[in-house]
Prior knowledge:
- This protein has one domain.
- Helix content is 64%, strand content 5%.
- The chain has ten helices and four strands.
- The strands form two sheets. Strands 1-2 form a two-stranded antiparallel ribbon. The chain has a two-stranded antiparallel sheet with strand order 3-4.
Amino acid sequence: MFPYVFHIGGYSQSTYGLLVALAFLAGLALAGRLARREGLSQEAVMNLGMYCALAGIVGAKILMFLVDLPQYLSNPRDIVSLATLRAGGNFFGGLILALLVAWYYMRKKGLPLLKTADIFAPALALGHAIGRLGCFAAGCCWGVPTHVPWAVTFTNRVANELVGVPLDVPLHPTQLYEAFAEAAIFAVLMWRFRKLHQPGALIGLYLILYGTARFLVEFVRNHEQGNLWGGPLDTSQYISLVLVALAAVWQMKARKRQPIAAPVTN
């Protein structure tokens, strides 16, 4: 749709890269602000955010390789190809590894696990919403052909060359579906953050809401990658179901914990 922001000499700034950077900075800034309001170490929380971002990049690539393992085993050069380096990977792989890194770091630094996780829930939703706009600009993660009134048609030849998005075909704007869903989730989480809530309730709510949204969007999303487990659903939908189920159990247990008061604002 709009793969590059500008070209200066031999340098080109991709819209995707710019929006992903803005997404990271916006999410990190929000996490730092919420940490300060909750009386936690702002430095430790922001360092955690940076470690999780790196883990997210690595985890997304790992799951991308696992989903298409036969392809990469038969063509090992594709692992270090330019197309692979440009690919964002699978978000769920990044989320899972980031959660594991976060758990280790919080225990090591003595940060309260549930309280810190709740701080990152709205920050994650905000960053993901902005990042999906980058996907829309680049043309990646596109939807299946459709004739709904809000269908989008990509015409930029560069986008086709970079990510393979079909041109001149009306498609479901799945990138925008996720962006709008994440924006709504962000609003819900910020509203809930200001209310009385049990520790861990917000991160559980995020996983339920995003897992549900992702499960539904996958029905109208194009699937170039393989299916790790086969069957009628794709890999992301299986992961969505597991996360929603685990988060639902988590939420039921969270109700038994002592609620914490909403942060006081000056």
